[in-house]
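Exercise: predict the structure of this protein bound to adenosine monophosphate.
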Amino acid sequence: MKFSEFATYLEKLEKTSSRNEITQILADLFKKTSQKEIDKVVYLVSGQLAPSYIGIDFNIAEKLMLRIIAKAFGQKLETVADQFKKMGDLGIVAEGYAYGKDGGASVLDVYQTLFEMAGQEGGGSQERKITQTAELLSSLDSLSVRFITRIPTGNLRLGFSDMTILDALSYMETGDKSLRSRIEAAFNVTVDIGKIAKAVKQKGTFVLKDVLPEPGTPIRPSLAERLPSAEKILEKVGSKVIVEPKYDGFRAQVHIYKLKTQNSKLKTEVVIFSRNLENTTNMFPDIVEAVKKIKVGSAIFDGEAIAYDAKSGKFLPFQETAQRKRKYGIPEAIKNLPLKLFIFDILYKDGKNLLPLPFSERRKILESTVFKIDGVEIIRQEVTGDAKVIRDLIQKYLAEGLEGALIKKIDAPYKAGARGYHWVKYKKTTGAGVADTIDCLVMGVNRGKGKRVGFGVGAFLVGVKDGNKFKTTSKIGTGLTDEQWRELDKRSKYLEVSNMPGEYEVDKNLVPDAWTKPSLVVEILADEITVSPIHTAGLALRFPRLINFRNEKNPDQTTTLRELEGLFKMQKI
Ligand code: AMP
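Solution:
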């Protein structure tokens, strides 16, 4: 496929916000691509060159792209920069200068050039990036130029998620959604959407039933539901359940496997993925070293890492553990905030897929795999069918300063990518007021008045996810410390956009001073959820307070409207 043809699809996608239409356009595009191209096309429509967990970074800021555009079309940098100031969109600026002729580059050619550019490192790499990309741009038609300039700068946001791509793959095969759940099941086990697309294109969806976990490729994590009481838990989860403490740190999916080195020796490789499936291995060399001591050929573990005070050995609150999520200053951080990894599940061992096994059996395998190692521990657990014992355990964990408990179904398989009653979380807040904190997206900000002029932001609008949309549930003007207001001001400045993002639904009476693009997630605790005629979610939060900035979450992982409705109903039980 020529890139110019691909660009016409991108244009169609850009013009619509209807999920159905987007699915049809994508299905049509995927149908037309060859087996060789489909994985690349899938990455490129999402503005990437590979799944995000591989972490290919273009390192091209908007400023550098302005230089590239200037060079490609023989313009002065100042002129291009002025245009950008006026238009606010690099793609449109570059398109305006484009020569308009199509040199015939294919999708694969463009992919290859972008790939080489992203890999440029070391002395002179910036100049090489400029030359390479400028050459590419000057050889393409204007529409292609519009989209190519947006990709390396992270501006190709066409408003759909991986889930829409999965739908489109089903439509590609059958013209309807009937294969979606089979495709999603495979995606849950191996989160490389390009690889899945290629397998479907090459061999049809029947190959997907054999998709197995693969060390090095993340598995979508299992998620927990909420229930208001120990009695309800026994009713829903099972007459006997497993109770584990809930540590409030980072989710860590730890992959261990052997790689052949150049001289044919085997080397142990460790990769750690966050709950978002970002590759966080480089941040936690202490965990990497510790888990290398586990005597296993290959394995995938699920666990939670939490920081503790090196002197007292006491576990620290999330805000402290969060300091370990950093790119620089790692050796000092290891000393000041050592981490302990609590492993609570094993998903794969030495070539065997353990996902379908009952939890109790996976636990036995876990216990026969991991023995005493500094910095790593199997999470403690108890089996009970008694509501009082559950309550007592929760009280005990809370008294230890932990976040609460997870109650798990004894015979459940590991439900990759699913939230369900196989896991139920019970936190301090459960049973009183709103049962859980709510992860909201910051959608816009208002400037401060009175005392808060100095902080910049004085109120902000937050919302929850409903399908592809974000619907408002609160305008928050209190419940933040001075420091949190300043932090919010700093962060929101980078996110301000002049028009309301297409995925937002906001009542006209709530339009903020400035919109912020979907990026910043905050954890909110509220006293009550009430019905609201003005918030587009239909529900509002009373007495909201900001608990945390949830850096590890992206907008796709905010609380959903369905979950918020669940919390609302729970209040009434
Ligand atoms: P939440 O983020 O509030 O939905 O709670 C679920 C999270 O709790 C998981 O994503 C894990 O990061 C964390 N967690 C802590 N302890 C456990 C445990 N014993 N089992 C499962 N998840 C746990």
